[in-house]
Structures are given as structure tokens and as C-alpha cells.
Design a protein that fits this description.
alpha/beta, Flavocytochrome C3, Chain A, domain 1, Methane Monooxygenase Hydroxylase, Chain G, domain 1, eight-stranded mixed sheet, four-stranded antiparallel sheet, 16 helices, globular, binds flavin-adenine dinucleotide
Length: about 575
């Protein structure tokens, strides 16, 4: 089946929906394609908030937000991009409000704001209330609003269609091909513009806060098209995943007064970050938790610590953190106002991704060449505003600001873009890939290989890594990629064949895992979320640069791009 549109957006999270809405409002024919029903995209899980210096609770300025974001990034973020983000953020919040997002309100009826990790007043002096929110269901509220608006502007949705390939013609991206998960029928989307908005890849790790759909497909689509990925070594571990499950307890819990305690009952973050304490950036808090555990100060000597919300007034807990409180009652059978919550770091966010400029164009190299017709937005893109470590609440604002910038730019450019011819046999490429797997009869099975990948990545390439663990991981991931060629699917059905889908996702995850490990191996320093125990110091002289990795006939190859620095010279991070 072949469909024609002006714009197709692969992925219907907040980033994809925002770009779709912006272009649809300006008379483009737009389709959003999502491998899960759009309203189940991971963006709905965002709890804590969306950062902007609107200053409703206390004095704030975009320059303070810019400084915090750059310092939080361990000086790897491109400062022109951070400036664009933080300047535009207040406007983006008001636009969301006008679209209908029901933000929580303070006593004066203004949008209420809360504290969040790493956000400060007056260049690091003390925590500031900068995160706007809708109770602890911020992502859900934004998603519902954008989805309603997209329907109003006649965006067409293809739910449960799994994209497998980008299509190119004369070096222009001219569409994408995939299949309908319900029937395994191939679908080809032919368009003037393609936007990748496929979110993150937390499922590569054993413990993650990410939904099942976060398998890094967009990164793999880019790699398959021989495009580079930028800064993939920087994988964020959120400090407070529910122990053993990885489900997130938002930083909002600490913003509202929750504290971390070790097995001795100590509020240990006071030692690691005397000013911001429990609201230090995530890389610092995650390392502190693991350090306490390795020093034998986990709870009863085990590998978790406690998040203690008992100091928060019960009424406030129910009003401001209803979703989190209900998760804890459901999954742990305890009441967070009576008992502390067992937590440990959980894989949460990919700082790296498909390199783009401020308008969302996908870049093909370190000098900034643009691939005509192709854009990327959201977590799968690397603009780069998060550098080596993202601050809480800065993802949602990134999705909205850059989702809109990309949309506006597409409107400007689309007039000059003609529909390029489709490559021959676009449909049959997907068909052949699926048939080969359905007919496969090898001895390997998907869950076993997936668990091995998750174990390798968790043990060898998570919060702490070293040359040795990374070498091991690279060898093991490559071995798993070979074993994948010998998979045999037991389910041969063409109706909702999830074994087939999981196999395709596994192939994507392994490709991305290899790039993460490869990039981490190249970076012989520690910065932000990338901590090398064999190179524990940050090394600005050699490493104030972005890693670009792409596939080539000889295997993976790397190159480096200098960081754009404007207002803030790198300094050592102290919180
Ligand atoms: C539990 C949790 C809480 C969070 N809380 C916050 C917060 O409070 N504040 C904040 O700023 N950030 C938060 N984040 C981070 C933020 O929510 C995410 O980074 C962001 O929502 C990603 O949005 P996205 O639009 O890029 O992609 P997603 O929302 O992940 O959507 C990806 C889309 O791509 C589609 N897709 C993927 N692959 C394919 C394919 N091959 N074919 C077709 N479709 C495909 C999916 O179906 C989906 O529609 C949180 C993240 C998590 C996991």
C-alpha cells in the first residue's frame, strides 16, 4: 500500500505531534506513524514537569536557565542551541497553555512551578522553582492536548505501523517503509519531508524507566542510512527507579521534600552536593547512590537506598504526587507517607542521537552538511542541548521548542521541495525482510538474546565503565549480533506477530548498543553521565568535543566536532 503526504512524522510522542501540528496548521497534508497507538507513546509517562523561566513563583531569567543547562551538561552542550531553547521556553509554555494544557495553578491563579534537579537561581546560588507541571501527569496532559489539536487539523494517524526503512532518491529523503503490526501488510509512505521522532532506547538496559516501545529504532534507521549518531556514550541513569522494577519515581518527589537515605539513615547527598543536596543533577546523584551501596551502606547492605517521603504533608503528597503515590501502593504494597521507598538508578534517557541543527535538519557530518528532506526531533535527536547530562524537565521543553522550530522550518522550505520519485521496489524490501524472518528456522530465540544484551550493557556499560568492561561489552554485543542471524521464529502468523516485532527491535537495539559502547570506548575521560573509572577526570583540553559515529564498510568509524561555546566558559562543577 502506497500513501502520499507532504510531511510524514515517524513517532507520535510530544515532539512528533508538535511538528505534525505546526505543519498541519499551515495547510500541509501530514501523517503521523506510530508503532504503538499514538496516545501510548512514552511521552505520556513524563511526570514531573517542563522547565521554563516564567518566574511565577520567584524571580527567574532565561540566562540562569541557560547557565544551569550548560553546567548540568558538563559543558558539552552547544551553547547557541541552549540559548535558543531557554529564550524560547517561556513562550512555548504560554503556547501550550493556549492550546489547552491544564497546568496546575498557584494561589494567584498563575501556572504553578516546582523545584527540579540542577535548576538554580542567580548562577548556582540555590534551588529555584522553574518546572511548570500538571500534578504529576505533565506528559499525559500535553499529549492529550496535542493529540486533540492534531485531530482538529486533520492529521492522519497510522497507529501500530512499524517503520523499517527510510527511502531515498537522488540523495533526498522521500519517504519511509514499514508494515502494519495487525496484519503484517507492508506500507510505503511517499512524502516531500520525513521527520524522525522515535524517542529513546532505554530498553537496551535491564532496568529502565522507559516504555516497551523505546527500542532506539530511529537511531537504527539513521545508522542504516549511513548517517552518524552524536554523543551516544552519554546515557542517563535516573537515581530513583523503584528497586527491581525500574519504574520511575519522578524527581518531583524530591522537589516536594523527599530525601534519599542510606542504610545508616543518613541523608548522604549532603556530603556529595552541599548546596543542592538531593536536587543535584542526576549523574551526580546516581553515582552517589552507587558509591554508598559499594561502601556497604545500602539498605541492610543490599543494592538499594531509600527515598523517604514521610516528611511531606499527606494532603500535599496526594495533591502533588497522586500518580507516584498510587504506583508505590500498587507495585510495592506500601504507603509512601508511612514507609520509605526502595530505589536504585534506572536507565532513563539518551542524551545523544541523530545530529541536527536548530531547524531540525539532519546533519550528515561534523561540518554540518544537511540531508535534504530529512528532519529529526525529540529524544532521538541531538541538537545538542543536553550535552553529557540532561537536567530534569529539560526534555519536555526540548520537544516542544525544537518540535515547533522544525515544523516552522518545514513550512518555509516545503514550497521549494518537489516530490522525488520513490525508489523501485520500496514495498518489496520490507516484504522480503519480514518473509525471511517468518521462514527462519535457526536455533536462537529472541528473549534469550535480548536478556544477554541487557545484562552486558547493565554490567559493563552503565553508570560506571572502564576500558576493560567496554572492550568486553563490544566483543559480547558483536557476538550477539552474529547469533541474531541464526534466530528461528516460532510464531509464523501474520496477525499481531509480536515475536517478529521483538526480533526487529532487538536487531535495532543491538546496533545502537554497539554504537554506545564504541563511543564510550573512544572517550577517554569522565564527563556528565559518562564515568570511566580508568579516566576519572574531565579533560577539557582533549575532549571538549562531540563524538560522531557512523557505519562504514570497514565497521564503525568515529569523528569529532568541537563544542559551540559562547557565554559560559567551562568550569568545574560544584553543587
Ligand atoms: C517515566 C519517564 C518520566 C519522564 N519525566 C519527564 C519529565 O517530567 N520532564 C521531562 O522533561 N522529561 C521527562 N522524561 C523524558 C521525556 O518524557 C522523553 O524524553 C520524551 O517524552 C520523549 O519524547 P519523544 O516525542 O521524543 O518520543 P516518545 O514519546 O518516546 O515517542 C516515540 C514515538 O515513536 C514511535 N516509534 C518508535 N519507533 C518507531 C518505528 N520504528 N516505527 C513507527 N513508530 C515508531 C513510538 O510509537 C512513539 O509514538 C521522562 C521519561 C520517562 C521515561
Amino acid at each position: 500500500m502506497i500513501h502520499q503526504y507532504d510531511v510524514i512524522v515517524i513517532g507520535g510522542g510530544i515532539a512528533g505531534l508538535y511538528t505534525a501540528l505546526t505543519t498541519a496548521q499551515n495547510n500541509c497534508r501530514v501523517a503521523v506513524i506510530s508503532k504503538v497507538h499514538v496516545t501510548r507513546s512514552h511521552s505520556v509517562a513524563a511526570q514531573g514537569g517542563i522547565a521554563a523561566s516564567i518566574g511565577n513563583e520567584e524571580e527567574d531569567h532565561w540566562e540562569w536557565h541557560m547557565y544551569d543547562t550548560i553546567k548540568g551538561s558538563d559543558y558539552l552542550a552547544d551553547q547557541d542551541a541552549v540559548e535558543a531553547l531557554t529564550k524560547e521556553a517561556p513562550n512555548a509554555i504560554y503556547t501550550l497553555e493556549h492550546l489547552g494544557v491544564p497546568f496546575s495553578r498557584n494561589q494567584q491563579g498563575k501556572i504553578e512551578q516546582r523545584r527540579f534537579g540542577g535548576h538554580t537561581k542567580n548562577y548556582g546560588q540555590a534551588p529555584i522553582k522553574r518546572a511548570c507541571y500538571v500534578s504529576d501527569r505533565t506528559g499525559r496532559a500535553i499529549m492529550d492536548t496535542l493529540y486533540d489539536q492534531c485531530l482538529q487539523y486533520d492529521v492522519t494517524f497510522y497507529n501500530e505501523v512499524f517503520i523499517q526503512n527510510l527511502l531515498f532518491s537522488f540523495n533526498h529523503c522521500c519517504g519511509a517503509a514499514g508494515y502494519d503490526v495487525a496484519t503484517t501488510t507492508p506500507h510505503v509512505f511517499h512524502s516531500r519531508v520525513v521527520v524522525i521522532a522515535t524517542g529513546g532506547g532505554g530498553r537496551i538496559y535491564k532496568t529502565t524507566s522507559n516504555g516497551f516501545a523505546s527500542t532506539g529504532d530511529g537511531f537504527a534507521l539513521a545508522l542504516d542510512a549511513l548517517l552518524p549518531l552524536e554523543d551516544m556514550e552519554f546515557v542517563q541513569f535516573h537515581p530513583t527507579g523503584i528497586y527491581g522494577l525500574g519504574i520511575l519515581v519522578s524527581e518531583a518527589a524530591r522537589a516536594e521534600g523527599g530525601v534519599l537515605r542510606n542504610g545508616l539513615g543518613e541523608r548522604f547527598m549532603e556530603r556529595y552536593a552541599p548546596v543542592l543536596k538531593d536536587l543535584a543533577p542526576r549523574d551526580i546523584v546516581s553515582r552517589a547512590i552507587l558509591k554508598e551501596i559499594s561502601d556497604g551502606k545500602g539498605i541492610e547492605g543490599k543494592d538499594f537506598v531509600h527515598l523517604d517521603l514521610r516528611g511531606i504533608d499527606k494532603e500535599q503528597l496526594n495533591r502533588k504526587l497522586p500518580e507516584i503515590s498510587s504506583f508505590i501502593r500498587t507495585y510495592l504494597g506500601i504507603d509512601p507517607s508511612d514507609s520509605p521507598i526502595p530505589v536504585a538508578p534506572t536507565c532513563h534517557y539518551m542524551m545523544g542521537g541523530i545530529p541536527t541543527d536548530l531547524q531540525g535538519h539532519v546533519l550528515t557530518d561534523i561540518v554540518g552538511s544537511v540531508l535534504p528532506g530529512l528532519y529529526a526531533v525529540g529524544e532521538c535527536a541531538c541538537v545538542s542541548v543536553h550535552g553529557a547530562n540532561r537536567l530534569g524537565c529539560n526534555s519536555l521543553i526540548d520537544l516542544v521548542v525544537f518540535g515547533r522550530f522544525a515544523g516552522m522550518n518545514i513550512i518555509r522550505e516545503i514550497k521549494s521541495k518537489v516530490l522525488q520519485p520513490l525508489p523501485l521496489q520500496a514495498e518489496s524490501i520490507v516484504e522480503a525482510k519480514i518473509n525471511r524472518l517468518l521462514e527462519s528456522s535457526g536455533s536462537e530465540c529472541v528473549p534469550v538474546l535480548r536478556e544477554s544484551m541487557q545484562r552486558v550493557m547493565t554490567e559493563q556499560c552503565s553508570v560506571f565503565r572502564s576500558g576493560q568492561t567496554l572492550e568486553n561489552a563490544l566483543g559480547e554485543i558483536r557476538q550477539l549480533e552474529k547469533r541474531c542471524l541464526n534466530v528461528g521464529l516460532t510464531n509464523k502468523s501474520c496477525i499481531f506477530n509480536y515475536e517478529l516485532q521483538e526480533m526487529l527491535e532487538l536487531t535495532n537495539m543491538l546496533k545502537v548498543a554497539e554504537v554506545i559502547v564504541f563511543s564510550a570506548l573512544k572517550r577517554t575521560e569522565s564527563r556528565g553521565a559518562h564515568f570511566r573509572s580508568d579516566f576519572p577526570e574531565r579533560n577539557d583540553e582533549e575532549w571538549l568535543k562531540h563524538t560522531f559515529v557512523s557505519e562504514s564498510p570497514m565497521g564503525l568509524k568515529e569523528s569529532f566536532k568541537p563544542v559551540a561555546i559562547s557565554k559560559f566558559a567551562p568550569e568545574m562543577r560544584r553543587y
